[in-house]
Specification:
Layout lengths: L12 E3 L5 E3 L7 E6 L6 H12 L1 H6 L2 E7 L3 H11 L4 E4 L4 H6 L2 E2 L2 E2 L2 E5 L5 E6 L9 H10 L2
Parallel strand pairs: 3-4, 4-5
Antiparallel strand pairs: 1-2, 3-8, 6-7, 8-9
């Protein structure tokens, strides 16, 4: 299954890097940019998440929370966040069950994908990369967020 624009977001609960549990539906009322990525401290993932970090004020100004999701554990996420000063939550999808439900699981693990879920839990932007070397740039996502309003 692949989630597409206009779908109601599939709810999930995953462990966060701070030890808490993150449930998507509990964050209704605010838009969420869900960023599925293959792994912490890999070159393309690091560039992608640092790009989003550098625009965090712009995302916040549009009332959008950035949430990263990979199969890495909380310890890896904490080290990755600290090393790159990432100002957003990273979630662990250890068995890639959420990635599978959202269409972001491939034969080799987590695919790179971005989904914008609006405050009413409707998917307003969905993009799953066909090749993990590609990524959505911050400006493209900001344009998509503005267009979804």
């Amino acid at each position: 299954m692949t989630i597409k624009e206009g779908d109601v977001a599939l709810d999930f609960t995953l462990p966060a890097d701070d030890g808490s549990s993150y449930q998507l539906a509990a964050h209704g009322g605010r838009a969420q940019l869900l960023v599925f990525y293959p792994g912490d401290n890999t070159p393309v993932c690091t560039a992608q998440l640092c790009d989003y970090r550098d625009g965090i004020e712009e995302f916040a100004g549009l009332d959008v929370d950035v949430i990263g999701i990979s199969g890495d554990n909380a310890e890896s996420h904490r080290a990755f966040r600290a090393k790159h000063s990432l100002p957003f939550t990273l979630l662990t999808d250890a068995g890639l069950q959420v990635a599978k439900a959202w269409g972001a699981k491939g034969l080799m693990g987590m695919k790179r994908a971005v989904f914008l879920v609006d405050a009413k839990q409707v998917v307003r932007y969905a993009h799953v990369e066909s090749v993990a070397l590609f990524r959505r740039e911050r400006e493209e996502l900001l344009d998509a967020i503005r267009a979804a309003r």
